[in-house]
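[audit] Reproducing an earlier prediction to check determinism. Same input, same settings, fresh worker. If the tokens differ from the archived copy the diff job will pick it up downstream; this log only records the rerun itself.
[audit] input (195 residues):
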Amino acid sequence: MFAAEAVFAKLPPRYRELIRRNREMFRFAVVGSATFLVDMVVMYSLKWTILDTKPVTARAIGVIVATVVGYVLNREWSFRTRGGRERHHEAALYFLISGVGVALSSAPMLVSRYVLFLSEPHISWAAQEIADFVSGLIVGTLLAMVFRFWAFRKFVFPAPKVVTKPEVHTIIKTVSAPRPEKRLATTEERSVPLR
């Protein structure tokens, strides 16, 4: 992620300010880009070798591997100022939401292949690969990304609790409230025996 910060330093000031205000979204997008590459490499490596007859399975495995990488990067970089949950709860929620993301990410390719029949022998190999790329890696990834960003911020990495300061009028009331007066005991009171 140091490369992203080096690029950030070279941007014009107005873009740096825009990114600074939307820091989490920018970092999430950088992590998403990295995991997109992981997903694409894993999916096509499997799809063109051992899972050549099961492209949706290759797609799901690619998403799962990218999800594990994404958890580490999001936890340590994108949302590092958030949290407040125990690590095992956070990880469980992350992977649960990512499971929904896997389904959302795989659904467009499932529709492309088995509902629209955009696969061989119905269309050429090149058209099939383009349909898989567009439905799986573009549409599916965008759909899952929007859902994950919302769900991660809402459930997995909630905003840190803000400590509210007491209002000014409360402080003034406390300071200006009458205090009980301490009075010294008179000599008569001091000389009275206790019974």
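[audit] rerun output stored. Observation attached for the diff report: The CA atoms of residues 83 and 158 lie 6 Å apart.
[audit] end
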